[in-house]
Amino acid sequence: MKTFEYTIKDPNGLHARPAGLLVQMAQKSASTVKIARGEKTADLKRLFAVMGMNIKQGETVTVSVDGADEEETAKALNEFIKSNF
Amino acid sequence: MTVLRGEGVSSGIASGKLIFLRRDAPSPVRREINDPETEISRFNEARNEAIRQLSKLYAESRAVLGDEHALLFEIHKMMLDDLDYRESVEGLIRSERVNAEYAVAQTASQFADMFRQMDDLYMRERSADVLDVSARVVRLLAGEEVSMPKGSEPFILAADDLAPSETARLDRGRILAFVTMRGSKNSHTAIFARTMGIPAVVELGNSLNESLDGKSVFVDGEAGTVYIEPDPKTESELRSRAHAAEERRRYFERFRGLDAYSPSGRRVLLGANIGSPQDLNLVLAAGADAIGLFRSEFLYLGRDAYPSEDEQFDAYRKAAEAMAGRTVVIRTLDIGADKQAKYFELPQEENPALGMRAIRICLTRPEVFKTQLRALYRASAYGNIAIMFPMIASVEEVRRAKEYCAQVCSELKSEGIAFNSETQVGIMIETPAAAIISDILAPEVDFFSIGTNDLTQYTLAADRQNEAVQPFCDVHHEAVLRLIRMTVENAHKSGIWAGICGELAADTALTDTFMEIGVDELSMPPGNIPEIRAKILDR
Known about the structure:
The complex is a heterodimer.
Chain A: E1 2-7, H1 16-28, E2 32-37, E3 40-43, H2 47-52, E4 60-66, H3 70-84
Antiparallel strand pairs in A: 1-4, 2-3, 2-4
Helix pairs in contact in A: 1-3
Chain B: E1 2-5, E2 7-10, E3 13-20, H1 36-65, H2 67-81, H3 83-96, H4 100-116, H5 121-142, E4 155-159, H6 164-168, E5 175-180, H7 188-196, E6 200-202, E7 216-220, E8 225-228, H8 232-253, E9 260-261, E10 267-274, H9 280-285, E11 290-295, H10 309-322, E12 327-331, H11 359-364, H12 366-379, E13 384-389, H13 395-414, E14 424-429, H14 432-436, H15 438-441, E15 447-450, H16 452-460, H17 478-493, E16 497-500, H18 511-517, E17 521-524, H19 529-537
Parallel strand pairs in B: 3-4, 4-5, 5-6, 10-11, 10-17, 11-12, 12-13, 13-14, 14-15, 15-16, 16-17
Antiparallel strand pairs in B: 1-8, 2-6, 3-7, 7-8, 9-10
Helix pairs in contact in B: 1-2, 1-3, 1-5, 2-5, 3-4, 4-5, 8-19, 10-12, 12-13
């Protein structure tokens, strides 16, 4: 399993449009992808679940990727999150 | 005459017959079904058709609304594809043996509630999106279509609310304006109306009701008022205002796309002043030749921590790409004075306008400054970016700022990151000091941009935020005009260009003076560009 942490810098938090692109990216992966903040965890392949977490600026999220292509998936997601949030 | 008051979200005056959009509210009746699997495949057929429609809508609305706004329909598609959404609908059909229409409507209201309960405004607005896409599926299941009122005459559309997808499809040739009971200023619907140039008033509440259907009305999208069957006096006032506004718009339209030249044959670029990439649609709609002032503060204000290099890079690149080769002048951080951000921990000052601000802060906090410069240079590989330093008062400051540019360029080079090594570097002329020594500043830079707002307040020693001294703040003061002339002449002596990016740039009383002085660029709020272009070209 690959994990990484990131603190959201975007004033709008994890808002719809880039969040949508993030979910799309996760959906392409063969691995299980989760996003967690504190106790709450959501499947990163599910848009409503991710939006439902209402992740805001300043909050730290942990993304974990588990599966065959975890290495590439984690890398791609990390880059996308860093440059969009 | 009745006057309804709401929130004006898109300006313009329109008059015509008020026609209500009639559509069956997507609150389908619950029916028992026998075969859940058949019902689920009905749902999926409708869902797939809805996705096809949304793809089409996305493609069509890109031209009208621009990529940024059109992306909303991509999100709508993803909502319909979402597993939680699908599982909820299919689960209801299976467990409760209900019809697909009902299951979709139930799911929509559950998800909409989830968004409505969130504490931030942005997320609350998303409930409209879930309801919008779900209503589409329900209509497809029921074989209904929302059809715009028929008839050949253009009209004013009234509705309880308009979904973003409905607004994007409004035919500008037939819909003179729209008015709604609900809605809000920051909704996509409002933003779309402004982008499409359709006058609109929202939040009219129950005063807007179907008893008004067919009545003759006037809509003032700026004031947010709707006049129902206005009395003759009001009507003739409104008509002449509408007529004058329309005449002006048509007149300005004649000059769209034409390059502006001064009487002596000098090309004058008409640039736009913007505060965030969200304004790019307005810039393109106004037919701007360039972005003459992109204020970078939006990246720093209203938050708790410094923006990252990548975040800044993204915003700058977006602007550079949207302008497709036209110049985008980005002003480096101009914080301090009336613009404060807590995390900068700036000390309280007796006299902030004469205190630590803009380049003064940047030069004492090289790490903040260099992060911004790196983002700017990286973005320079994607279009025609020019970097501009604010609040310059000495040659030394320019040299130090340029030293940081050189450091950043050599770092990027050694890291193998692409950037444009020819990126123009210029300064704001907004202190009297800079104007007076513009002859020795000019050889140091590629351009000047005169910030008339600060230049005026510093020259006249009159605070522009102090109501009491407004009589002393004569924006046409000879002292300011002399400084402008001097700056432009010194720029030309060194072979560089000089523009104006303060409020004076859009002052039609001075356009002729600026032409005579030889100003190379006037940068202003996008909405003023058509008027100034006409002013320069029509002689």
